[in-house]
Amino acid sequence: MSQLVSQYSTEQVSYAVIAEDIGKQVDLNNQKLEILRGISLKIKRGESLAIVGRSGSGKTTLLGLLAGLDVATQGEITLMNNSLTHLSEDGRAAVRAEHVGFVFQSFQLLPSMTALENVMLPLELKGDASAKQYAQEFLKRLGLGDRLDHYPSQLSGGEQQRVALARAFACKPDILFADEPTGNLDQETGQKIIDLMFELNEAHKTTLVMVTHDELLAARCQRSVYINNGRIEKNIAQVDGIVNNNDERSVLNEPIKGAV
Amino acid sequence: MNSFQLIVQSLRDLSRQLNSSSIRLLFLSLVMAVLSVTTIMLVSDMLKRSLTNSATNFIAGDRQLVSPRALNLEWLEQAERFGLQHAKSLEFSSMLYANEKFQLVSVKAVDHKYPLKGELLIENNDGLRVSAKQGPKDEQVWMQKRLFSLFGLSAGDTISIGDMDFVASNELAQEPDAGFQLAALAPRVMMRSDDVEKTGVIQPGSRLTWRYYFVGSEVDIASYESWLLPKLDPSQKWQGVKEGRPAIQDALEKTETYLLLGGSLAVLLACIAVAMASRQFALGKIDSVAIMKTLGVKSSKIIAHFSIQLVFLGIVSSLIGLVLGAVIAFVLQDLLSALMPELQWPVWSMQSARVILLALGTVFISLIGFALPQFFQLRKVSPMRVLRQEKMNAIAWSWQSSGISIFAIFVLLYGYSQNLTLVTGLLFSVLALFAVLIFFSWLIYQLFGRKLSESLKVGSVLRQSILNLLRRPWHTLIQLGVFSMTLLLFCIIFIARESLVDNWQGQLPENTPNHFLINVSASDLNALERTLEAKKIETSGLYPMVRGRLSHINDVPVKVAVTKDVAALNRELNLTWSRTLPEDNRIIEGAWWHDENKFSGESLDKTKVEGGHVKVSVEEKLAGKLGLGLGDELRFSIGGEVLDAQVSSIRSVQWDSMRPNFYMMFDKGAIENFPSTYITSFYATKDQKPILNELGKQFPTVSILELDQLVDKLRSIIHQVSQMIEMILVFIVLAALLVISALINTTMGERAREAALMRTLGVKARFISLVQFLEFGLMGWIAAWLGLISAETVMWVIQIKLFDFTYEPHYMLWLYLPIASTMVIGFVSYLHIRNVPRTSPMEILRAYS
Q: I need a labelling partner for B612 at 20 to 30 A (CA). Which of A131, B325, B383, B676 fits?
């Protein structure tokens, strides 16, 4: 607990993400379409934030900008003390490699790779020699020990998203960006995935930024930002929403051998 | 919706997809197929015309009719009615009298239109060779140099033939249709045909040869031929270039076969590219088709929609292909016309109509056989797909569609080459080789793949590339198979070109004999040999010639034994004897003399030979025509005496080697007692020409036949033709690039998505491009070795086992092909994916989710 307190104190000064007056315009049939405008946002390290809004409100675009997948047409974004605005695509890639993990609505597993290979991929790309062993361990802990050599097409939606979570957390990211992680799952499976995601988040002390249109899911985050028509409508802190640590899943806290 | 609306809608839909890579590839592949067919047909037609045309110079017309009698006037009038021009000559032997000496000469009396083609050269008063438009004037003759020296005459002196006196006005240097039978002739005298009658030498029973020369367009000649041929009797010969000049026939046929083979392979490759690009195009349509079906659109309408798009693509691509092909043929013609003035732009004819028909046929057969089957599968797409994204592959591989494709390519290649053996052989070999290549790819995959990747550093580009290859074993195997097949075909065409050119150049090497010495008497033999030796001239050997007629085969008179009309039986043959087999002759059956018994060294009398028979070696083709085999007995009549011989071997003879060649060869001693003259040939450079004059003076009775211009001409034609066929290589390379590109394109969707995902994981764009480049480059490298080794093996088997030629590996290919293939395939894949690392990963994820 003392660890937690000390971390909270450092969060006062250091933010995982800082967005200042950002906007995004796109050209569509020679007309300028403003997707986002005047968005300013600070996300503390270890904080969990939900970006909520209707379809087409611009929430996924905001997530992409915050994660450095796309470039804002105005304003400035700082990710883990790196100013994304002034970085090249390769520079942003380096920031992502070091700090960022993703979970997508449509899972985005590579169809030509097995579950194990999908989790190994980011570790291998970082040059982790024990990638295989580590990925195996991680998948076993998520209950996918008998699914290691299965291809995405042979896995259920829930299983695929668990593999995606394993892939995201395997690299121990500082920030996890999740885009409607339960959007393609039924309620029960979705619930299990969310539980798992929050547990992993807790265990790895990860900052979580999640896009959702599900108010209940948003309520589990410490804070919710409501986007409407490209602007922030509401910014609500929900301290009650923090999920308590579950002793049953405490295994997830243990360090895994060979981790980076 | 009426059909007009359907067409408009399909085309509008097509216009919106013009930037899709599969449509572009489909279009380019169709253009490539048409372009290959058009250009190769036009160029091969052009070549054929120009070769034929230059060859017709050697028969002094497009066709020759050789007859022992004067032709019916009606036949010639008919030729005029068909639009043909004609000329004639009459050949006969007579005695020439001058300075109180007699000499048997061969007279050629020509009309005022001779020669219709080719060059008639005489020496003018200044000793220069000039081209004569027509034969000698009335009461004048032109004579070969040898006659001037024999009689001690000079230009302007008088000679007589029969009852008439002539002025020997010029020296005859070259007649276009001398052919190679001159060896048998007495020295030539040329006069006007109007003068023949006045000489009074033509008597009933005289042996005469009438030659009628015809020129005209191929179409007119063909119609005249069909009118004339049924009227000819067996003693009359209708000759074109092919009948007259076997060397040119051979060159023509080999070039044609090569062009057709190369062109067929280019078309085959283009069709494979069409199939792959269409498949990719159709795959991209699955979702739209599913949606159209949920909206109640019938399958037939969907197929109609795509068919309209394909037909439109087909029409546009055939037009572009035809125009491009014509432009290329035109440019080639323009470039080469300086070297080959005979090269003709193909005029509008049946042939160009055939080219256009074939080009259109190519496009539509390749669309029906390769593109449509892919789209046809879209009928089976279930509208359920809209609700449930099944992992079904709507465009499955099927026996039917492969069958249709194979049948289509068969029809196409047959229509194109009209050569059933070539097409069947080609298709079988391609299918069999493809299976072999897939097997070896699998072997490499099994043996090296996993081990190699595990030994590499984690996170390295090479390891990622190899892992990518290993993850999609089927993709990798098929890609390796297609890449190596493509490179194999390239290698075969490359190697075939080399051996074709070598073969031609081997036929007429730099020091091919270009002069013949004929009529060397036995008494001059030693002196001549010494003179030639002193002048450092190497001959192809001095062969004795004995004139004799074949009278009986196995005691049956030849006229009875052989019903076919064989030219060699109508005249005296040149018989020779030799201890050794001439170096370009080969024994096909039986054995040459040495092999049987050692020659005792003394001259054998014919009666001493066992059973009263001497041994004779017969030329292969004549033996075939006469139906001769080993052990058959031949009876020759030589100057009234009889010689019995037994066939002891059958030889092949290279007739175009410019060396003395003989149908019948005897062992030394067998016919030595008969009167003989000697013949030889040698190579002399332009600078050595004065030697000929010296020889002429020293040996006035020896005939010197100068063929240097003809040999030069043949050699330059061969040189130009071999350059022209390199064009085929360009087509093969382009078609191969299309196949490679189409194949790479099929996996690009998945790769782009992978690349985007890797980038969200923080992988740098350069790394992704490098992995991609290496992955395909590696396949290119392996495919190059597979293709190269298979091509060398195939060509080795063909050359060594079938043709008994020597074979050497093509080190140039071994050096450059693997590097080139790695770079090209790697680079093409890079071009396909180059935009992916630059686009925002956000957009790609949206596009592919």
A: B676
